[in-house]
């Protein structure tokens, strides 16, 4: 087999990879909030003020940078005033999007902000455009972030919080093309400007406002937003109406009526998934191109605030709760997406995998009966990648032929890679998407001296391998011994269906 070389100029970092591309998402959906993050103060599951202690610990370990809440589709049904004040007096509502269950609002603004403080994560609050008012959104921001004796600051104090919180990220609605109001792009673009005008910067709090963006390849939606983003009127934030435009893209294996099974899939299914996951590159490139035309200075960020796998729900669970298992396949879907976010660090300012606990491509699964916590294979990819947070993106240029496979009529490259550098270290990420064949890559490391290395590998005998309470480490990272010195740098073995990271010490 001819040698495949990956050339990396260690001395030529490009844009900084924002740690916020490692963001997460927690919606009032199924067992994400209730039973995931929130168990209540009286639970036998160890908790701090109602929030699961082990969930906090696990997410702190992967340095969760931000958390998006309360939705998703739920955000445009949510009225924040229902979620403040004494818990036993909060009004109830129907969560019509997700399971048609009654929501008792016991997890609201104060609980979410408490959670973010425990996680040391920055809050990304998503406001309601679909069924909410401009005044409601404006007052929520005042409640959260104002320090003096304004009406909303006084109400917050009355509810037990003296100091304002810092809220750096605020979403102007969610999926207005669908569950968020079924609007046209032009109608929403006007509303986004209107609502964003009243999302004010109080005191020292400066909000990065995120307009609700496109579904998948709807480039016309992004264009409609970019067209209005720069037309400044009086009384506006000098930075423009919004600083981010979002994008949602989910990886499914079939169609939306039958998305494929999370754990029972064939090798062919594996390749279809990889092809569809790799499509994120085409989408990011496409939306970035539209944005470049209107914003060549790249002041507005692309915020991929929903991404990940979406399978058929696990047998026997509520179809509206979107609970699914998470295999090695999910891990490689994650690594492929993260590579793209690294490569487009100049435009992608934030990303949020959906969703943190018990919903879709989760980091963590909790057992409703025993309370056991399981770390998913996807969690381990996030753990292995913490070295990319706020590091300078490095180009990885392949020399030689990257193995490919024909999937659904297209040639799909079976190797994905990215790299970054920070201070005296660099991190190289390598995904071998080949279900059956191992391969070896020579890292041609240029520009700086490499004084040492360590490596980790995430793989398992079966593509379908996943973690459960009984077998929590069926898929877990291990030290990788298949890395050898090479005249050009290092030679790295990549087992079939594996994710490998190589950490370099640089002189
Ligand atoms: O993440 C689940 C749902 O997917 C979100 O609520 C919605 O925004 C998207 O359609």
UniProtKB/TrEMBL annotation:
The reply to whether Cell membrane figures as a keyword in the UniProt entry is no
- A Pfam cross-reference name: Alpha-L-AF_C
Task: Give the first-level EC class, as a single word.
Answer: hydrolase
Under Enzyme Commission nomenclature, its number is 3.2.1.55
Q: Which UniProt keywords apply?
A: Carbohydrate metabolism, Glycosidase, Hydrolase
The family database entries (InterPro entries) matched by this protein are listed as: Alpha-L-AF_C, ASD1_cat, GH, Glyco_hydro_b
Which proteins does it associate with, and in what oligomeric form?
Homohexamer; trimer of dimers.
The record's annotation in PANTHER family points to: ALPHA-L-ARABINOFURANOSIDASE C-RELATED, INTRACELLULAR EXO-ALPHA-L-ARABINOFURANOSIDASE 2
Its protein name is non-reducing end alpha-L-arabinofuranosidase
Which organism does this sequence originate in?
A: Cellulomonas oligotrophica
């Amino acid at each position: 087999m001819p040698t495949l070389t990956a050339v990396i100029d260690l001395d030529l970092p490009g844009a900084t990879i924002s740690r916020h591309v490692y963001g997460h998402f927690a919606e009032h959906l199924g067992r994400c909030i209730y039973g995931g993050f929130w168990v209540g103060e009286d639970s036998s599951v160890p908790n701090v003020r109602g929030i699961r202690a082990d969930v906090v610990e696990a997410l702190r370990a992967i340095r969760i940078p931000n958390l998006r809440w309360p939705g998703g589709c739920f955000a445009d049904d949510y009225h924040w005033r229902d979620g403040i004040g004494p818990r036993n007096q909060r009004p109830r509502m129907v969560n019509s999007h997700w399971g048609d269950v009654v929501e008792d609002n016991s997890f609201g603004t104060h609980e979410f902000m408490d959670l973010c403080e425990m996680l040391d994560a920055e809050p990304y609050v998503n406001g309601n455009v679909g069924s909410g008012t401009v005044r409601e959104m404006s007052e929520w921001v005042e409640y959260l972030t104002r320090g003096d004796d304004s009406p909303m600051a006084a109400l917050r104090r009355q509810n037990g919080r003296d100091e304002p919180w810092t809220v750096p990220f605020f979403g102007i609605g969610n999926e207005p093309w669908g569950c968020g109001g079924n609007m046209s792009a032009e109608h929403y673009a006007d509303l986004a400007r209107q609502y964003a005008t009243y999302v004010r910067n109080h005191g020292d709090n400066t909000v990065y406002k995120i307009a609700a963006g496109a579904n998948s390849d709807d480039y016309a939606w992004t264009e409609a937003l970019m067209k209005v983003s720069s037309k400044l009127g009086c009384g506006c934030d000098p930075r423009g109406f919004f600083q981010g435009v979002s994008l949602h893209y989910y990886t499914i294996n079939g169609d939306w009526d039958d998305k494929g099974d999370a754990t029972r899939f064939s090798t062919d299914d594996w390749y279809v998934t990889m092809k569809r996951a790799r499509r994120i590159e085409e989408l990011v490139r496409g939306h970035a191109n539209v944005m470049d035309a209107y914003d060549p200075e790249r002041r507005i960020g692309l915020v991929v605030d929903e991404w990940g796998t979406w399978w058929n729900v696990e047998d026997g669970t509520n179809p509206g709760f979107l609970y699914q298992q998470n295999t090695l396949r999910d891990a490689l879907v994650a690594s492929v997406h993260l590579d793209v976010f690294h490569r487009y660090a100049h435009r992608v300012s934030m990303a949020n995998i959906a969703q943190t606990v018990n919903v879709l491509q989760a980091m963590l699964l909790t057992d409703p009966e025993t309370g056991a916590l399981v770390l998913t294979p996807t969690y381990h990819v996030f753990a292995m990648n913490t070295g990319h947070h706020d590091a300078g993106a490095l180009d990885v240029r392949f020399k030689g032929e990257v193995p490919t496979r024909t999937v659904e009529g297209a040639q799909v490259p079976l190797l994905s890679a990215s790299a970054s550098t920070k201070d005296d270290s660099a991190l190289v990420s390598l995904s071998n998407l080949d279900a059956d064949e191992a391969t070896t890559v020579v890292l041609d490391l240029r520009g700086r001296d490499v004084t040492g290395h360590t490596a980790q590998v995430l793989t398992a005998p079966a593509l379908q391998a996943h973690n459960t309470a009984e077998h929590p480490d069926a898929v877990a990272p291990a030290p990788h011994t298949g890395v050898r010195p090479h005249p050009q740098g290092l030679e790295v073995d990549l087992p079939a269906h594996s994710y490998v990271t190589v950490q370099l010490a640089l002189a």
